């Protein structure tokens, strides 16, 4: 699945340590029109959808930071394959 063009799988190495927002689940939904982007977060009372400009900027910055510390897609696949083979 991770080799499909529409799927991007990234693994965060434990060596990267904790980071702001770790443990919070969110989905950043983006399309060709940036103004229609939406962030979906899980909360105790159900999903919340955020679409304000400053909210989107906060989560986009967070995703950019996460992508910089994550393993590359190829290294992530190799890591998962190695773990699975070691089971």
Task: Please tag this protein with its features.
87 residues; 17% strand; three-stranded antiparallel sheet; 34% helix; single chain; alpha+beta; 2 helices; 3 strands
Strands across the major sheet, in which order? Answer: 1-2-3
- In what range is the share of β-strand residues? 15-25%
Uncertain stretches: none
How do the SSEs run, as a string of H and E?
EEEHH
How many alpha or pi helices? 2
Structural class: alpha+beta
Estimate percent helicity.
Answer: 25-40%
How would you sum up the major sheet? 3 strands, antiparallel
Query: CA-to-CA gap between the ends?
Result: 20 Å
Question: How many E-type strands?
Answer: 3
What multimeric state do the chains show? single chain
Describe this structure in words.
The model has no long low-confidence stretch (mean pLDDT 89). This protein has one domain. It has 87 residues and is an alpha+beta fold. The relative contact order is 0.22. It is globular, with a radius of gyration of 15 Å. It has a 3-stranded antiparallel sheet with strand order 1-2-3, with helices on one face.
